[in-house]
User: Fold this.
Amino acid sequence: MAFPPRPPLMPGVPMAPMIGAPFTLPRGPITLERHPLPTLANIVTPVGIPITQAISKIPTRLPSRPPLPPHSTNNSISKGPQTTSVSHGIKPPSYSKRIESSGPAVTVFVGNITERAPDVMVRYILNTCGTVLSWKRVQGASGKLQAFGFCEFGNPDAALRAIRLLHDYEIADKKLVVKADAKTKEVLDEYKEKRKKSKQGLDSSPLQDEVEEGEDYLDEDMRVEDATAMECIANILSEHRKDIVNYVPPQSRHERVKERMSKVQEKLVALSSGADIANIPTTTNLDDMDDVEEGKKELITREITQFREQMK
Assistant:
């Protein structure tokens, strides 16, 4: 690769320094001159200034940086999903000694549900006890929700909490019934035994408070969670209080038939008393008699037809 040539020199213009001649080092050894540092004897102070003030103006060496703390592998971030240890004198968080609840899914029976309680509210109440995998409320042939259902919890701990807190718990005018079948009780009893052994291993004090029979597997953390769940249930009931108080039960089939018959009778009385026939459409009379017996329907229709013929 060739470089472009130098620009031509104009006549009468002197050559710039360092152009045209290559740079060369001088031959022979190169010596560096050493200048001695000033001493007290060589310092010349002005007239009238004491020697101490002149010495204080001499620049001193900057303070050295404090040494870094030794590198420790305990304070470093480890690779992978492991947690990082805390340094700089910060106390690490203390975790509860309770073992995370685990186990198979457990299904319990939830019955005697008041019809005043919305199904959404029942779901919220069940969720306060733990992880709910499914809630199946039984429906009747007409699609009306029945007073019982089956709730599947994610672990035995949640199922036991539901039985402890919700069984005999009064909502509106009824008390809930939360129970487990024989096969499910075996799973729950096995979980209780594991909790007892775990609790005995963690309790170091030989003197323990007396507990009720059947609740000796509870530890302090579980009691705190029970209290928190009860507060949540109270808040849920308070939020749905208007729905419970203002609930209007649906009419039964017998009541609907009775109401429609009364309407038909009122129209017959109005026709017999000389009311305007235009104000009583025939289609309305026939539509209101869907649940009336066939014999009575024919009788009523015949009476209406005869009355219309007489009024022409």
